[in-house]
Amino acid sequence: MEEAILPEEAIVEERRNDWREVNNYVEAMNEAIDELKKLPLSIRLLRGAHERLLSGVRGEAKHPGEIRRSQNWIGGNSIATARYVPPSTEYLPDLLTDLEKFWHNDEIQVPNLIRCAISHYQFESIHPFLDGNGRVGRLLIPFYLISKGELSCPSLYVSSHLEQHREAYYEALSRVRTDNDMMGWVLFFLEAVAETAQTGCRKFKQIFALRDEMSACSHKIPNTALAQQLFKYLYSVPRVTINQVAEALDCGYQNANRLFTPLVKEGILVASSEAKRNTIYDFKRYLDIFKD
């Protein structure tokens, strides 16, 4: 978490690919959600997200943004030893068109969470890209729920649950194909959503409680208005230097430094580097909420 919110130049060379992948994920999500304000959910939108996801990272040589034109497989060193072989390319246009129709067919009387579960399964089964299908398939979950008005922002991050239960996730998907066990997959998906939602609600409550506490704290600082601006800034940039805050708040270095002094003393801002100049300070209690 601490590294993900730093600028790229602050990341050690061997970890920059991971940093780029995380930031691509965030950018792909935000760009697609902006698109959803103007256009319906579509394969075209997923292709755009795929292109952003693979830009300059793992899979960039495998035609980002393009539906595959060759066979792929999951697991194993070849098709002969693969755990799963997706449909051949000749079937992809019809399968993807069918998936789009399913998203927008209002005559299907099925709750959106269940339709979302089926959509994710179908997308992963089609596996329309040469690489990055897992990443796009996980993004499809908030895209679908936002497109249906179930979410207003991507506050439901099911990916974390799926990663923690990776083998059970793969097994639940596989059983639909091998045993026609769609019910088992849907139940697994709904459990993932429920646990993720509960975790999200707990974190939001912690953030709101911290916000109220910091609002009260700002009134104890001589320049209360500037302190309130600082806290608002810290929620979006929780790792900062004094120079960075001085520039962002347009308040000058000395005024920014005066803000930092009581917050460092109270342990609200904690130095995360030993550098004498341009020390990075963490809004630690806020960051800790996301690491819990």
Structural summary, described in words:
This protein is an all-alpha fold. The protein has 12 helices and 3 strands; from the N terminus they run αααααααααβααββα. The chain has a 3-stranded antiparallel sheet with strand order 1-3-2. The mean pLDDT is 93.
**Helical content, roughly?**
55-70%
Q: How many distinct folded domains?
A: 2
Measured distance between first and last alpha carbons: 11 Å
According to CATH, the homologous superfamily of the largest domain is Fido-like domain
Radius of gyration: 23 Å
Proportion of residues in β-strands: under 5%
Secondary-structure blueprint of this entry?
Blueprint: H1 16-36, H2 43-53, H3 92-104, H4 112-126, H5 133-147, H6 159-164, H7 166-179, H8 182-218, H9 224-236, E1 239-240, H10 242-249, H11 253-265, E2 269-271, E3 281-283, H12 284-291
Antiparallel strand pairs: 1-3, 2-3
Helix pairs in contact: 1-2, 1-5, 2-5, 3-4, 4-5, 4-8, 7-8, 8-9, 8-12, 10-11
Features:
292 residues, mainly alpha, Arc Repressor Mutant, subunit A, 3-stranded antiparallel beta sheet, 60% helix
Characterize this entry briefly:
The chain has 12 helices and 3 strands; from the N terminus they run αααααααααβααββα. With 292 residues, it is mostly helical.
